[in-house]
Amino acid sequence: MNTAPATARTLADPDTPFAVVDVHKTLRNIERLATRADRLGVTLRPHVKTAKSLDVAALMHGGARCPVTVSTLAEAEAFADGGYTDITYAVGIDPHKLPRVIALLRRGVRLRVLLDSPEQARSVADAAHRAGIAIPALIEIDCDGHRGGLTTDAPALIETGRLLHRAGGLDGVLTHAGESYAAHTPEEQRLAAKNERDTAVAAAGKLRAAGLPVAVVSVGSTPTAHAAEDLTGVTELRAGNYVFFDLVMAGLGVCRIDDLALSVVVTVIGHRPEHGWIVTDGGWMAMSRDRGTAGQPQDQGYGLVTDLNGTLLGDLVMTAASQEHGTLTTRDGTTPPDLPIGTRLRILPNHACATAAQHHGYHIIDSARSGAGPAPAIEACWPRVTGW
């Protein structure tokens, strides 16, 4: 993160590019899903992989240490240091990482690992035996053919469950409707959420029918979390992107563009009028290479452009990026607005997780408190967890 100097008071002060989080919008997004989870009668286990920030996590549950999901052991270790003791590591376990898992368990952290094969289950069981400690584990279930996991009719499902149970570590099942990110209508998202629930509940039923205990039935993705109508048989709901949202989620109709809480401040450094270009100092190193909206009806390039107060600048889009340069053009190729060199802008990202990962931290603003001045005040600087 570009650390704001002592004189930095507004978004006009720090060196660009830098990441900005609007805490008002973040809180609004958090409250929206928390209310939904309460209505559905499930525990909300936020996935902290998007923000990777203890400060952002503190906005949930009134600062209480809620159950969380992580995507790296670095996140698990940082959140354990921050007092979190109920953590699910939702990436298939690599046996080489088990010593770090065991170290966290010995600290009193209930860290669940994820796996989808008897081979992994044997590795976990062997490590647990050697360490003299149970390693809680969830079996990943494939609900939509998107990535990892066992299908509900896979013979390895029961075998994996028995291996874990004998080692005292079978906690339950987990699934993720990855293909919901291509569900472009409310009905498609509702059906994805129903399939996600039905698949996880069916897998849990197969294990229970084999005499195996299943305490946890975990589902979730940001689209399905906001579309689910009935989570009977499910114990917990996971989502991560929702804290910030992004243009992909807006393109799916899961949120509005006004809900996007993350942006990147860049500065105009040049013009190429013969091409209709405005050039900024924010390239893909600031925004990431993610072009997730390219497959949607409205391609948003590398991001939409706003002024420092978050007002969209017509149809101006970041349409190209090299490492440290961003190119802004109008969507229809007409002459762009007159933005002199030195003008600061904010870019709304395609994929919040990927854009946030380009930065070491966030400059915090509050759009509910900002006045009508030329640039919002910086209220704090929050670090991110990095590494694996």
From TrEMBL:
Gene3D superfamilies linked: Alanine racemase (3.20.20.10), D-serine dehydratase-like domain (2.40.37.20)
Statement: the UniProt record of this protein carries the keyword Lyase: yes
Pfam family, one: Ala_racemase_N
InterPro entries for this protein: Ala_racemase_N, D-amino_acid_metab_enzyme, D-ser_dehydrat-like_dom, D-ser_dehydrat-like_sf, PLP-binding_barrel
Positions of the D-serine dehydratase-like domain: 261-366
Family designation: Belongs to the DSD1 family.
Name this protein carries in UniProt: D-serine deaminase-like pyridoxal phosphate-dependent protein
